[in-house]
Amino acid sequence: MVKCSCGKRAIIYVKVKGKYMCEDCFLRYFERTALNTIRRHKLIDKRDKIAVGVSGGKDSLALLYFLNEHFDNEIFGIFINEGIKGYREITSKDLRKYCKRFGVECYEFSFKEEIGMTLDEMVKRGRLKPCSYCGVFRRYLLNKKARGLGATKLAMAHNLDDEAQTILMNLFTNDVKRFMRLGYMTGIKTHPKFVPRIKPFRLLYEKEVLVYGLLKGIRVTYIQCPYAEQAYRVRIAHVLWKLERKYPLLKYNVVKVFDPKLRELKERAKDEELRECKICGEVTNRDICKACEFKRELKIPIS
Ligand SMILES: [Zn+2]
Ligand SMILES: [Zn+2]
Questions:
Q1: Any domain includes 221
Q2: Ligand number, closest to the Cα atom of 300
Q3: Which of 201, 212, 231, 247 has the fewest beta carbons under 10 Å from its own?
Q4: Among residues of the chain, what percentage have pLDDT more than 90?
């Protein structure tokens, strides 16, 4: 039996600490890490009303649970139903069950109603990869709806694995603009229409988030998005997973080594102006936002 330093039976190996931990010590480590992240980067203010972007997956439910447990702020979930047949029906069922159990309100919005087309329909009609449409419209709706519901922060369950993947994806494609989406809090400039996004789990491994959720009684049906195979992210995730088996802490180091660079990039981008899309009025750094551009391409009538 592998033991924790306190003498109890260990349940997990925590890489960052280089230690096996028991249930109690792990929970303390997990919660302290997330709370320190929030405090150090000033992610949550007493007056904040927090919307949590939830998908029905383990990560976002764990975040919803965690924030609800530790903060007195008003907290609610926002669920975006992209319209993926045979996938969303299952995850949304889990989501509703847990929101009810946590006593948290959850608002649901669909691509079909809000954009005019399901993701499945977009994929049939458009020429881009599913994740391109999904990412743009999801970000668009999350911001718009969070703001509409009065949220001042939008919490996302991005973990260390997600963040390391995003850093490499942007690095490999030399996409500097997208670097702005990285970091503990995204966006450097405030625009009244932009709800800042926060990532309390940014320094926690995906596995740690999963174990935390399990210890808190969160058990969801695991089902992979049918479009995931086509995703660049999934390929990068696989490479990182393989590398990390050989080089422990690789993902942690990717995130940590990149942080000073990120601050520099954000500083430099400060002069870039955020404005309102000429068609829909949503916040963007271009004349016409990406969502409206995609709607045009997909021949969705723009209202
Ligand atoms: Zn212990
Ligand atoms: Zn627009």
A1: yes
A2: 2
A3: 247
A4: 65
pLDDT in tens, 86-126: 887 778 888 999 999 999 999 999 999 999 999 999 999 99
CA distance 179 to 169: 10
User: How many Cα atoms within 13 Å fall on the side-chain side of residue 289?
Assistant: 21
Q: State the Cα–Cα distance between residues 101 and 97, nearest whole angstrom.
A: 6
Could you tell me the distance, in angstroms and rounded to a whole number, from the CA of residue 2 to the centre of ligand 1? 11
Q: Which two tokens stand for residue 9?
A: 């039976």
User: What is the tally of structural domains in the chain?
Assistant: 1
Report d(CA 239, CA 279) in Å as an integer: 40
* Residues 255/164, Cβ–Cβ less than 8 Å: yes
User: Residue 4: inside a domain, yes or no?
Assistant: no
Q: Is residue 10 part of a domain?
A: no
**Domain limits for position 90:** 34-297
> Within a 10 A sphere around the Cβ of 78, how many other Cβ atoms?
23
CA of 276 to the centre of ligand 2 (A): 8
Residue 269 lies in a domain: yes
- The ligand that comes nearest to the alpha carbon of residue 20 is 1
- CATH code at position 215: 3.40.50.620
Number of other residues whose CB lies within 10 A of the CB of residue 204? 27
Closest listed ligand to the CA of 12:
1
> What is the number of alpha carbons within 13 Å of residue 26 lying toward its C-beta?
28
Could you count the other beta carbons within 10 Å of the beta carbon of residue 192? 9
